């Protein structure tokens, strides 16, 4: 099985956000233990670096992001993905549309996110971490 992990799931883990922490941690552990092949979109890395600036030092952010880059396949964004996302009228949020483009490139079975409503136009099945765990664990 192949999944793309959305930025908010990683944020749940890093910041231990309740009540989402346990389910997000379990999904990420499945990838870390090689039970599931996981990826993140390349733009997730700079997004996290920016978002986490209020919570972590530069060194802490770099350490965490380096670990993520080693744990997951990082799917790059190229001109083709950018153009496809810009031409897709099913999404209001450009960043979410890029997540879908990366998930398609990785041949993901699922996108794991807590913002399911933001992915209504996705051709890749979208599921919350807790539902994913119930369904597959």
Give a verbal description of the structure.
- It is built from seven helices and five strands; from the N terminus they run βααβααβααββα.
- It is α/β, with parallel strands linked by helices and 137 residues long.
- The protein has one domain (2-136): 3-Layer(aba) Sandwich (Rossmann fold).
- The chain has a five-stranded parallel beta sheet with strand order 3-2-1-4-5, with helices on both faces.
- It is globular, with a radius of gyration of 14 Å.
SSE blueprint and pairings:
Blueprint: E1 2-5, H1 7-14, H2 21-32, E2 37-41, H3 44-51, H4 58-71, E3 73-75, H5 79-87, H6 94-105, E4 110-112, E5 125-127, H7 129-136
Parallel strand pairs: 1-2, 1-4, 2-3, 4-5
Helix pairs in contact: 1-2, 2-7, 5-6
Concise account of the structure shown:
The protein has a single domain, classed as 3-Layer(aba) Sandwich (Rossmann fold), CATH 3.40.50. It has a five-stranded parallel sheet with strand order 3-2-1-4-5, with helices on both faces. With 137 residues, the protein is an alpha/beta fold.
Order of helices and strands: EHHEHHEHHEEH
- Helical residue percent? 40-55%
What CATH architecture do you see? 3-Layer(aba) Sandwich
Spans of at least 5 consecutive residues with low confidence? none
Q: Could you name the CATH class?
A: Alpha Beta
User: What is the CA-atom radius of gyration, in angstroms?
Assistant: 14 Å
- Outline: globular
Strand order of the largest sheet: 3-2-1-4-5
> Any idea what the CATH superfamily is called?
5'-nuclease
Structural class: alpha/beta
Mean pLDDT: 96
How many helices does DSSP assign?
A: 7
Number of strands: 5
Q: Which range does the strand content fall in?
A: 5-15%
**In CATH terms, what is the fold-level topology?**
Rossmann fold
Strand count, sense and barrel status of the largest sheet are: 5 strands, parallel
End-to-end separation in angstroms reads 12 Å
